[in-house]
Amino acid sequence: MIRKMICITCPRGCHLEVDTETLAVRGNRCPKGEQYGKTEVTDPRRVLTSTVRLEGVPGACRLPVKTAAPIPKGMLFAAMDALNGVTVTAPVAVGQVVLSDIAGTGVDLVACKQF
Fold first, then answer.
1. What is the DSSP string of 41-62?
2. What pLDDT sits at residue 58?
3. Do 34 and 14 contact (CB within 8 A), yes or no?
4. Phi, psi of 22 (to 5 degrees)
5. What is the DSSP string of the chain?
6. Which residues, including other chains, have CB under 8 Å from residue 62's CB and lie 6 or more apart?
7. Which of 37, 65, 93, 103 could bridge to 78 as Cys pair (CB 3.0-4.6 Å)?
8. What digits encode the pLDDT tens for the residues 62-95?
9. What pLDDT shows up at residue 79?
């Protein structure tokens, strides 16, 4: 079976065709496209971006956060559930770990803004 997709690893946006049985990739103009196509078919991953509660800063009630690395696409909802109970107290530095090993993925959730 051939799966069609658009590569998102660079601005070119190559139109890929990936054979799901052999993992042969066509349409990529660079090695990153080939790797993206294979990964998207076998183990799709995404960086999760969201916010968590923030205390100790007048006028600010949410802290922007993201996963430090992509997590399995199937774990996104579990990771979002894990965010519900998270509250961070200022001061917070960019890149500071807010939640370790989110939803058992082995990936940390980090702050994206300094307060």
1. HHS-EE--EEEEEEESSTT--E
2. 86
3. no
4. -100, -10
5. -EEEEE--SSTT--EEEEETTT--EES-SSHHHHHHHHHHHHS-EE--EEEEEEESSTT--EEEEEESS-EEGGGHHHHHHHHTT-EEES---TT-EEESSGGGSS--EEESS--
6. 51, 52, 53, 54
7. 103
8. 999 999 999 999 999 999 999 998 999 999 999 9
9. 97
Mean pLDDT of 17-32: 95
- Spatial neighbors of 89 by CB under 8 A, at least 6 apart, are 54, 55, 56
Round to whole Å and give the CA distance between 84 and 77.
11
Q: Which amino acid is at 51?
A: T
- Above pLDDT 90, what percent of the chain? 93
Within 8 A by CB and 6+ apart from 73, the residues are 44, 45, 46
Is 2 a residue whose pLDDT tops 90?
yes
- Enter the pTM of the model: 0.81
Residue type, 108: D
Please report how many Cα atoms fall inside a 13 Å half-sphere around the Cα of residue 53, on the Cβ side.
Answer: 7
